[in-house]
Amino acid sequence: MEQHIQHNSGPIADGDGRVFTAIVNQYCLEFSSWTRYMGISKYHEPLAKALRKSSLDLHLKINFPASGAAVFIPLVYFSEIGNHVFQFPGFAIDVEKDEVTGIDVTQFLELAVAEVQVLYPEWPPIDQALSSSHALAIAGQKIICHTALEERFFPVIERFKSMAMGDQSLLHDLATSWFRQYLNGIMEQPLTQSELDEVFLLVSFLGNQKILEEREMLKDVYLRLQSFLQQEHGEAIKTLLQQRRVEIKGDLFSCAGQYVRSVYNPLHQYFYSSKLLVPTSNAQVYYRYFAQEAVAISIRPFDLEKDLPMVHQWFHSDHAKTIWKMDWSLKALEDFYRTLLAEGISHSYIGEVNGEATFNFEIYWAARDILGDYYDVLPSDYGTHLFIAPTDKQKKFPSLITRTIVEWLFMQPEVGRLVGEGSVESRAALMNKVQVGFKLQHIIEMPHKKAYLNFCLREWYWEKFPQNHHHSLKTFINEHN
């Protein structure tokens, strides 16, 4: 790794960091080896020391396994479109040696070229100088495009701010009304690709200016496009709305070879459940009392400081090692959760039975999960991974726990279907899911396990437990009023 991180190439003049920002954003658009990282590590001191130098709680973490490195850049604003805002400087860490060094544009591109060379071994050796020059030119084009849009729409934002006079609610209403009028104007006919690109760029601009939430704007775009389904270009619109991934032509390293990458469809944010995947606190989110069994089950979001030592102990139990396979060090487990909780594609929860922490489960958005590669995933599919800590049958209550989770998930309007990939070795867990309404499909071969694909629809669950439908419906109405 030293040849990439410790090489002291002079940084390219980059005033406010816009070149570096454009390079990083384009790399993250074209390649997926990155995540968000939350907070400061408690069990990895070299990393913690470097993270403390930033005043921000979030970092973008970009992995470069070909060089044994990871790059961390303080994250000011995360964009669903991919136009993130950073606070430089960032740093690189040697994953094996735990050595931390600074990182500039040139060094970042050296790491990126090494990674791309591994991804495309059929390419001839990439000329570093030529590749860097090309990447910088691409970044320059992106900056020009973004600047033109900002100059075009910035006066609109300033006018709204002046009219709102500090009233954030009024500012939101003015901007929402204007954005919808803009969509109506630009979408009198189905959009061309360049027009759609402009819409996405505007969404990210209004988002990073804290005018509107990107997800809310993307939902408006989705609904406006949906209105064209019955018209002449309906099939093309249907494909645009339904496709899980969108292919894009690779730009950043196209001087070395032609390549195509795919990105997740941002329009599927219409089906994103913020309530499930980014809870705003660690307070209890659901409570269910089963009178016949005298069992109370509650669910709360995972609390990293409070729960990490507990689940670390759970995961080192014999039955967890066999199936769960997360018997890692505290350092590795902390890194996993700091990424998972920050990423917003899945979230971890702790469940209590009669006031005692008993189970851990993860909710994941299947359209963005590896499982989505193994079946025709729908954007409204959500899945769970469940681990019950006690082995004592008097404390496990697997059926009641699963019913509680399923009821709560089906209360969320974004959830259309529950999916799962239970290991073929976990026969008891699979049978428990069947008992609460899941239906086993076929066996799928995943990289880490052989699993039964399984589904559950609301009506399947209520067929099993019609007596609980009124309870769940009443809770849903109370929560959404």
From TrEMBL:
Its annotated pathway reads:
Siderophore biosynthesis
InterPro entries noted in UniProt: Acyl_CoA_acyltransferase, Acyltransferase_MbtK/IucB-like
Q: Which GO terms describe its molecular function?
A: N-acyltransferase activity
Membrane spanning stretches: none
* Keyword terms: Transferase
User: Which parts of the sequence belong to the Acyltransferase MbtK/IucB-like conserved domain?
Assistant: 300-349
Pfam families, alphabetically?
Acetyltransf_8 (PF13523)
Which Gene Ontology terms describe the biological processes this protein takes part in? Answer: siderophore biosynthetic process
Its recorded name reads: GNAT family N-acetyltransferase
Q: Native species of this protein? A: Pedobacter petrophilus
